[in-house]
Amino acid sequence: MLNANSAAPAAPTPQNILDTATRLRWEVSGGVHESLVEAIYTDAARIADRAVIYPDKPPRFNLDRAIDQIVTSRLFGFPLMLLLFTLVFWLTISGANVPSDLLGRFFLDTIHPLLKSASAAIGLPWWLDGLLIDGIYLATAWVVSVMLPPMAIFFPLFTLLEDFGYLPRVAFNLDNIFKKSGAHGKQALSMMMGFGCNAAGVVATRVIDSPRERLIAIITNNFALCNGRWPTQILIASLFIGALVPAYIGGLISALAVVGVATLGVLLSFAVSWSLSRTVLRGEASTFSLELPPYRPPRFWQTIYTSLIDRTLYVLWRAIVFAAPAGAIIWLTANIQVGGISIAEHIINALNPVGWLLGLNGVILLAYIVAIPANEIVIPTMLMMTVLITGVNGGAGAGVMFQGNDAQTMSMLQAGGWTLLTAVNLMLFSLIHNPCSTTIYTIYKETGSAKWTAVSALLPLIMGFVVTFLVAQVWRLVAGM
Question: Has residue 432 got a pLDDT over 90?
């Protein structure tokens, strides 16, 4: 131990360090240097063998490269992509029917009568009983029974493809088309994120350095079907499109219809990107390098767990949060009367002429007004309002949620005037219409511009009106011949 009078050790000088290094180098055995150099050259040769193809000898087999020659090829890349997504949707549609029906019957046939009995036992006023049980509870229960089974199947399957390393290959396949559209190739990555949530897709556009190209990606991200719109597409395709063919292939045809709508969204992204890049956002597309990650065996149980917790339950909870107040609003508008007619019927009757021009109806338009906070509540809102105007509610009060199997739901919708044209245009409008309020707010936060936020919200809405109007007129013209 040093005392107070002892001097501190002198700091080593650069010359001392060099002398020590020289002495230690000679003390090391001679084989270390050769081994070190040999290891460096061995690693370099191994890396070169994996990355370089020599013309005078056949390349070594590489599993990742062999798979990429198929999934990213011009011949097989796009058909394989459509086949995989069709398989995912077919498994989702076919696998969700039974658990969805069981949950619906449990909530309606078991829990609902118990709540009604408890309400009568404690003497709740009729209006409070209806608001809490027939409005808030049934709307929430319907969201859970209809959304939970398909999401519990779809999200894990989609996450497994992502974990395997396939989704970056989809972006690679789409890169050249985005470039020809005047957009940045990384827009494919933000679009893939948009298939989960459009708000997340908007945030993901931060990977694009060019402000012009990032703005194009933000405006067109709405054309990627988000979580909240999948249930609408799947249910309508199952009821109307799948019903056109024999039951044994109904699930496959429904899946193809959903894939077709999702593919149309991608094509609209190309078209709008091309238009913007040649008009108000004119400019040259930037180039970038996309690193494809190696294929990995999916961590099955971990992927199932994380997809259920991070995606399924998150989206379900968000739907419940918005469905509960929406159920209250729907019940109130259905039961508060003005001039002997409910407020909801007044609004629906006013919107019906516009809905007819668009191949839709007033119920659908009102549902999309109510569902601005979240797309997840479109279907329950439409069914409750259809029950109101048709009276198909088993004698219950106005605006009470209807729950039945596919055949009963189909009969109820047909009683409300729904046709195949209504279903097709609903699927189209669900794809194209304005973003939800969360996405609109995210766009404003990311762009800092009220102007571009308004463009991002109004452009898809106008396109949705135009597309459905044209389809309706052509459909009726052809049907009338």
Answer: yes
Please tell me the distance from the alpha carbon of residue 85 to that of residue 284, in angstroms, as a whole number: 32
User: Residue 96 and residue 136: Cα distance in Å, rounded?
Assistant: 24
SS3 137: helix
Q: What is the DSSP letter of 181?
A: T
Cα–Cα distance for residue pair 470/457, rounded to 1 Å: 21
Q: How confident is the model at residue 2 (pLDDT cuts 50, 70, 90)?
A: very low
Would you give the end-to-end CA distance of the chain in angstroms? 107
* Contact in structure between 124 and 79 (CB atoms under 8 Å): no
Alpha carbon separation from 291 to 126, 139, 163, 172, 369 (Å, rounded):
63, 45, 15, 9, 42
Q: How far apart are CA 396 and CA 386, in angstroms?
A: 14
The dihedrals phi and psi of 338, each to the nearest 5 degrees, come to -130, 115
- Name the helix (H) or strand (E) containing 385: helix 378-390
In this structure, what token pair is assigned to residue 314?
């998150």
Neighbours of 84 (CB within 10 A): 16
The whole-angstrom separation of Cα 141 and Cα 132 is 12
In sequence order, the 6+-apart residues with CB closer than 8 A to the CB of 476 are 421
Of 267, 291, 283, the closest CA to residue 215 belongs to 283
State pLDDT tens for residues 111-147. 888 998 999 899 889 888 888 888 888 878 877 877 7
CA 453 to chain CA centroid, Å, is 20
Report DSSP letters for 465-481, one per residue: HHHHHHHHHHHHHHHH-
d(CA 257, CA 233): 9
| Radius of gyration from C-alpha coordinates of the chain | 30
Q: Cα dihedral sign for 265, 269, 275, 276?
A: positive
Is the torsion defined by CA of 218, 222, 228, 230 positive or negative? negative
| Model-wide pTM > 0.90 | no
- 272 backbone dihedrals φ, ψ, rounded to 5°: -70, -40
Which residue type does 430 have? S
- The amino acid present at 139, given as its one-letter code, is A
Q: Which run of H or E residues covers position 341?
A: strand 341-342
**If we measure between CA atoms, which residue out of 231, 234, 193 comes closest to residue 86?**
234
Taking the C-alpha atoms of residue 434 and residue 401, their distance in angstroms, rounded to an integer, is 26
Tell me the C-alpha distance between 154 and 87, whole Å: 10
Residue with tokens 């118990």: 114
Contact 364, 382 (CB under 8 A): yes
Nearest to 221 by CA among 176, 255, 272: 272
CA angle 154, 156, 159 (to 5 degrees): 105
Give the model confidence (pLDDT) of 274-283 as tens digits.
999 888 887 6
35, 254, 437 from 29: Cα distances, Å = 11, 73, 70
Helix (H, G, I), strand (E, B) or coil at 366: helix
